[in-house]
Each structure stands twice: as C-alpha cells, then as structure tokens.
Amino acid sequence: LFEAMRKDLVPKEHGVPLLEAQLACGGIIDPVTSHRLPLELAYKRGMFDEEMNNMLSTPSDDIKGFTDPNTDEHVTYQQLKEKCRTDPETSHSLLPLTEEATKHVEIHSEKVTKDIFQRATVSVPSGKFSGKTVTIWELINSEYFTEDQRRDLIRQYRSGHVTIEKIIKFTITIIDETEAKKQLLFEGLRAKVPARKLLESKIIHKK
Predict the structure, then answer these.
(1) Quick one: which of 13, 68, 136, 203 has the most CB atoms within 10 Å?
(2) What is the largest CA-CA distance in the chain?
(3) Distance between CA atoms of residues 39 and 25, nearest Å
(4) Residue 114 CA: distances (Å) to CA of 10, 49, 84, 110, 121
(5) What angle do CA 95, 97, 103 make, to 5 degrees?
C-alpha cells in the first residue's frame, strides 16, 4: 500500500487511513507473506519510511480518515473500534448508533433502492391489482399510497430500518384496508349493496 502511495497510485489521504486501519486490526499487512506485522517490525523491514512511521505512531488529523456517525467528528479506525460493542450472537464488533444518527445513515443508495423495488414482485390479493403480480415500485406509486407514505417507505428502507419483506407485507395491508373501506355495505331494498357499486351508479357521492 505504501509503495502504491509513493507511486501516486493511491492518494495519501486515502492510503494513510487504510494503513492505520490495518494496524488497528492486528498489524500492517506484509505484501509478500500476507502476515500482519507490528508497526515497529514493519518499519524495520522497510515497508514504509520514517515519516510514515512517525505518522502512524502518533495519532493526528492526518490519519483520522473515518467519521463517527454519532458525533460527526473525524476519528481513527482504532478510535471507532474502541466505541464498538461485541455482538453476543456473531461476536462481531458493532458500533451503536444514536436515534439521531440513524436518521442520516443510508445503507442503500437511491438508485439501488429503486432497482430493488422494481425487481421485487408481489401477488396482490385484492383491489385494482387483484390476481396480478406487480412490483413494489408500481404499488407504492399507485393511488393506494400518498406521497408522504411513499417517501417514508423509501427512507426507511434506505436507512435499513425495514426489510423488503416487511415493505411487501405493509403494501398488501394498505391495499386490503383501502379496499375494505370501499366495500362498506349499505342496506338496500332487498340486499346489502357495496358502497363502490352505489358510487358507480351515482346513487351516492364521495362527499
């Protein structure tokens, strides 16, 4: 990595934080053996120069290439690791996020989200799309959803708060509830008549 930086293949502002991250994860990676080496040994083997050794030895703004999503401050990878908690099920180190931070974290880009919504399909049991297999994107852009609902679903998915499976269940629920309201029954002369049919016959009005 240092050699690539010296040849201007990797910008210094990108390379230095990566070296610091390697060090925080167990040591600098030897490109020959792929083993991790302590900073001092890596320096002795000529893997980087004295300036880089001093930079990695003393945390400074030059190696703070990461951002703490909870505070927006620039930190080193080691400092982020120290704020992590070990997940009991996976043993992975996870960084706890404040409620405010989760509002600004986007796991999926706008383009990726739209692509996923356009590929995810669902068989709709009722309403306008009854018996048809349509995409989530088509459903949330139909008359069943308001602009606010559509934006909220996209935002929640992009932030990782909900899965595509939960969105599918939610869209079906909304459609079912909407159709149920349309099917409010009125007492007719001989039988109960759905409100929808009364509307179509112009016997009653939406108002």
Answers:
(1) 136
(2) 97
(3) 12
(4) 32, 47, 32, 6, 13
(5) 140
The mean pLDDT of the chain is 82
Residue 123 in tokens: 């068989």
The model carries a pTM of 0.46
Residues 6+ apart with CB under 8 A from 60: none
Residue 23 near residue 58 (C-beta atoms within 8 A): no
144 Cβ contact partners less than 8 Å away, ≥ 6 residues apart: 127, 128, 171, 174, 175, 178
List the pLDDT tens digit at each of the 207 positions of the chain: 777 887 888 888 888 888 888 888 889 998 888 899 999 999 998 888 898 888 888 767 767 888 888 888 888 888 888 998 888 878 888 888 777 776 666 677 888 899 999 999 999 888 889 889 999 999 999 999 999 899 889 888 887 778 889 999 999 999 998 888 776 654 444 555 555 555 565 544 555
Q: Which two tokens stand for residue 131?
A: 């018996």
